[in-house]
Amino acid sequence: xxxxxxxxxxxxxxxxxxxxxxxxxxxxxxxxxxxxxxxxxxxxxxxxxxxxxxxxxxxxxxxxxxxxxxxxxxxxxxxxxxxxxxxxxxxxxxxxxxxxxxxxxxxxxxxxxxxxxxxxxxxxxxxxxxxxxxxxxxxxxxxxxxxxxxxxxxxxxxxxxxxxxxxxxxxxxxxxxxxxxxxxxxxxxxxxxxxxxxxxxxxxxxxxxxxxxxxxxxxxxxxxxxxxxxxxxxxxxxxxxxxxxxxxxxxxxxxxxxxxxxxxxxxxxxxxxxxxxxxxxxxxxxxxxxxxxxxxxxxxxxxxxxxxxxxxxxxxxxxxxxxxxxxxxxxxxxxxxxxxxxxxxxxxxxxxxxxxxxxxxxxxxxxxxxxxxxxxxxxxxxxxxx
Length: 386
Ligand code: GLA
Prior knowledge:
This protein is of the alpha+beta class. The protein is built from eleven helices and twelve strands. Strands 1, 2, 3, 4, 5, 6, 7 and 12 form an eight-stranded mixed beta sheet that branches. Strands 9-10-8-11 form a four-stranded antiparallel beta sheet. Alpha-D-galactopyranose is lined by residues 36-37, 39-40, 173-174, 176-177, 336-337.
């Protein structure tokens, strides 16, 4: 019991601040079923929030100080005033996610108040399951409990968190991770239109489990590769004088593809075909058609491997092992930004054990580690913990 994130955060809070916290909030990580690198192209994605989360316990202060500690890391309290410029730190990184959101809320003129915070979580870090977005969204959700924040919707909170990551932490991510964490609906995946910001919950088919396999391939050089992909997509959109690749259709791309650098052409083809796959996947899921979902996930993986070039051999191998078990009865693909991280599978419940065993038997990461397996449930988005 004492090892839940909530219990850890509360114990550390009391030890450090000598009081009992009075507010507790949570924000989940996410896994993306399909729609990769489409969010920053104004496209479509189909993620869900997962039942692994960041929790924050807190207490209002009488003054204008914010004091923050991370129960999962040893180290000093990060302390600053709401009335002075909030600067980025060299380290620790977690503190910058909090600082970035606080600064963004101050800049928006919201009625901020001083607080003491203690943070803990169980979202695997560096695995592509959005532990950082869950932290940023949790911070935003915490301050949104204050009077005067009533107009801040879950999507607004996601955008505050994304802005903090883009401008303060320095990662040019899209908006999928934060919207998933802020807007999750239990037992539903979210069809998100990353341009209009419309979020449509689609029920998870009965009898299907969401499995996540952490490859333990660490995502080296990921930021530069991510930003390069983003630039290539923008180059393609500019070539066709379009606001974003969302606006490009496959017929135009095929007819005029030779005008593009061949690498840029492949990047654009991934995004255009992936958007179409997401739309089809939302329909397949709504109809409970796991076989169709499986085809679309397989095509998505191939497109990430061959056109967007963001998979690595160990990930391709892991996907193959799971595919051999589930066949046409479900789907499997890499999930997240790429270059390692996790594989996601939609698996009929009666094949969960077989998939787990096959991976235990056949997969070893280049660093010698075995895959970690999570069977998770589509979870509700950020909120107050009763
Ligand atoms: C990372 C980013 C997201 C999204 C995915 C790729 O998770 O944070 O915004 O671009 O990569 O789909």
